[in-house]
Amino acid sequence: MGSSVSSTASNIREKDDSSSSSRTDLGDLPESCISSLLMNLDPPDICKLARVNRAFHRASSSDFVWESKLPSCYKFLASKVLDEESVSTMTKKEIYTKLCQRNLFDGNTKEVLLDKCSGQVCLFMSSKSLKITGIDDRRYWIYIPTEESRFKNVAYLQQMWWVEVVGELEFLFPVGSYSVTFRIKLGKPSKRLGRRVCIVDRVRGWDVKPVRFKLTTSYGECSISECYLNESGEWVYYHVGDFVVVKPNEPMKIKFSLAQIDCTHTKGGLCVDSAIICPSEFKERLKQF
């Protein structure tokens, strides 16, 4: 009887082992199937699933997956911030990761980066990349170093009758809708006892007449608006206008400006940090960049 029980138990174990070995799990999925699945996910989710097993890890690093996440103009962007030899040796995932970082170009006066979740393009232009009337005369404008700017310095207006700040750019954007915004402040950034302060004693003239904002593109789009500058001491994002890109492989020329050229009164105390061009749906997120 003992030998019969032993034989039965042995048979059960063999069946269990056979059943276990015939089961499939996620590791048995073809890598091509996993890649097709990952293509439908956002980059953060792809990185999370890379930890599931080796098959998911390999699939999550494939060029097939990451090329679908890169914007159509990624080669143009890479040419701005990477040398040609580096691009030729990098995987698409490495290129995506690099473009999601802060990438300065044009003598460190401009910056481009991809939004990590969506892969959409955001562009920042420092005050030194803008054409500012009278910027070379220190009686009117000076550059101030400050940690409040992503470019570490801002243009500060001491006093002037004619104020005009113009940005011009030729760039290749992916298809979509974009907004142009100025980041400016009334007041002079400074430090007192190690704390950031804003000196507003030279702010004048902005409540007399509004500032005019204007945007034009090589597609024939034009946007004009006016606004009084009346918020002292805080960085404010002033919307210039929107434009739409419909041709995926054609660079677009953009010109935008802020101006207060009424010479009946002087203006002063204006601080210009940068201009921002980003997808229109990001307008409410600008402070997060």
Structure description:
There is one protein chain. This protein has helices at 2-22, 31-38, 43-49, 54-60, 63-67, 74-81, 84-89, 92-99, and strands at residues 103-105, 110-114, 121-126, 131-132, 141-145, 153-157, 163-171, 176-186, 188-192, 195-199, 211-217, 222-227, 236-245, 252-260, 270-279. It starts with a helix and ends in a 10-residue tail after the last strand. The protein is of the alpha+beta class. The strands form three sheets. Strands 1, 2, 3, 5, 6, 8, 13 and 15 form an eight-stranded antiparallel beta sheet that branches. It folds into two domains: 2-67, no CATH class; 119-288, Jelly Rolls (Sandwich). Helix 2 crosses helix 4 (54-60). Residues 1-27 are annotated as: Disordered. Residues 23-69 form the F-box domain.
List the helices and strands and how they pair.
Layout: H1 2-22, H2 31-38, H3 43-49, H4 54-60, H5 63-67, H6 74-81, H7 84-89, H8 92-99, E1 103-105, E2 110-114, E3 121-126, E4 131-132, E5 141-145, E6 153-157, E7 163-171, E8 176-186, E9 188-192, E10 195-199, E11 211-217, E12 222-227, E13 236-245, E14 252-260, E15 270-279
Helix pairs in contact: 2-4
Attribute tags:
disordered N terminus; eight-stranded antiparallel beta sheet; alpha+beta; Jelly Rolls; elongated; single chain; 15 strands; 289 residues
CATH class of the largest domain: Mainly Beta
Spatial shape:
elongated
What is the annotated CATH architecture of the largest domain?
Sandwich
Alpha carbon gap, first and last residue? 77 Å
How many independent structural domains? 2
CATH superfamily of the largest domain: Galactose-binding domain-like
In CATH, the topology of the largest domain is named: Jelly Rolls
Mean pLDDT comes to: 88
Cα-atom Rg, whole angstroms?
A: 28 Å
Put simply, the count of helices is: 8
Query: Can you give the helix content as a percent range?
Result: 10-25%
Percent in strands? 25-35%
**What's the order of the H and E elements?**
HHHHHHHHEEEEEEEEEEEEEEE
Provide the structure class: alpha+beta
Largest sheet: 8 strands, antiparallel
Uncertain segments are 1-21
Total strand segments? 15
